């Protein structure tokens, strides 16, 4: 018998798409919705994919790297990429009008590159040259550009509309970007593995501590970015029964949200 199934017309497809969009939008509304995260349904989906990629690819590779590589070698690798990151730190501190921080970043690159065997040894920190980490997302924030909605990027993890633009510029500040393709890709891959290996303990703690990993990472990321821009932030509210306990909290210490990284985020070089 011939099928009686009616063909899907363009109008029917459009209605189906509109209904799906309305359903997704409804998931992001209500008393529990975060106004900073209007794209939560999509962000959660991307977060889940990133988390699975980390669980089955990035984390095992990082664990293997840590198991077979001596600690002095791992430290030298971290110092090497940290030294390259100071090039971007210099540029962003300069763009933000932070002359002292820019000078320190420039001196760190010069000292570590020359006396530290290309950055494999960190000579600058013991010499009193403090690391002044910055990125172009923070530079845009310093210029008054609003962050826009929270955004989870495939592979790169937590971000925002502003920080997503900043991420592209950060790559332009990275000297690795201008290396030959084979060298560039190898170094980017090594940087990802190095970052992930350094975050093994933090992400293990996150998995044990967070009831909702997505919300924890989002709130920690947003609080961290506001803190770095000098905003007066309080600890995120995770629905404690006694809301008065959260009143009068001091701004979080700079390192507090760092315990909640997304493992698949190479993001801005350190």
Automatic annotation (TrEMBL):
Chain segments carrying region Disordered: 233-270
Chain intervals with Acidic residues compositional bias: 238-248
GO biological process terms on file: intermembrane phospholipid transfer
Keyword Signal among record annotations: yes
Keyword Lyase tagged: no
Feature: compositional bias, Low complexity: 249-262
GO cellular component terms listed in the entry, alphabetical order: membrane
Keywords: Lipoprotein, Signal
Signal peptide: 1-33
Pfam entry (one): MlaA
Family: Belongs to the MlaA family.
Protein name: VacJ family lipoprotein
Organism in which the protein naturally occurs: Cupriavidus oxalaticus
Species lineage: Bacteria, Pseudomonadati, Pseudomonadota, Betaproteobacteria, Burkholderiales
């Amino acid at each position: 018998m011939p099928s009686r199934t009616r063909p899907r017309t363009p109008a029917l497809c459009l209605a189906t798409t509109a209904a799906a969009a309305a359903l997704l939008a409804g998931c992001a509304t209500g008393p529990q919705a975060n106004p900073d995260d209007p794209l939560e349904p999509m962000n959660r989906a991307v977060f889940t994919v990133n988390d699975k990629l980390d669980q089955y690819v990035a984390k095992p590779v990082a664990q293997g790297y840590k198991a077979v590589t001596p600690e002095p070698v791992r430290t030298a690798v971290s110092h090497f990429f940290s030294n390259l990151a100071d090039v971007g730190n210099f540029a962003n501190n300069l763009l933000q009008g932070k002359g002292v921080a820019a000078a320190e970043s420039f001196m760190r690159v010069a000292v570590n590159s020359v006396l530290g065997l290309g950055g494999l040894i960190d000579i600058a920190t013991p010499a009193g040259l403090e690391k002044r980490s910055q990125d172009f997302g923070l530079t845009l924030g310093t210029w008054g550009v609003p962050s826009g909605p929270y955004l989870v990027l495939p592979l790169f993890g937590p971000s925002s509309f502003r920080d997503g633009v900043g991420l592209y510029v950060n790559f332009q500040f990275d000297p690795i970007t201008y290396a030959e393709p084979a060298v560039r890709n190898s170094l980017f891959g090594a940087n990802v593995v190095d970052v992930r290996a350094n975050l093994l303990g933090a992400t293990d703690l996150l998995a044990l501590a967070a009831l909702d990993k997505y919300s924890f990472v989002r709130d920690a990321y947003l609080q961290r970015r506001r803190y770095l821009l000098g905003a007066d932030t309080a600890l995120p509210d995770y629905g404690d029964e006694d809301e008065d306990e959260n009143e009068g909290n001091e701004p979080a210490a700079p390192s507090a949200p760092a315990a909640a990284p997304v493992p698949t985020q190479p993001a801005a070089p350190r």
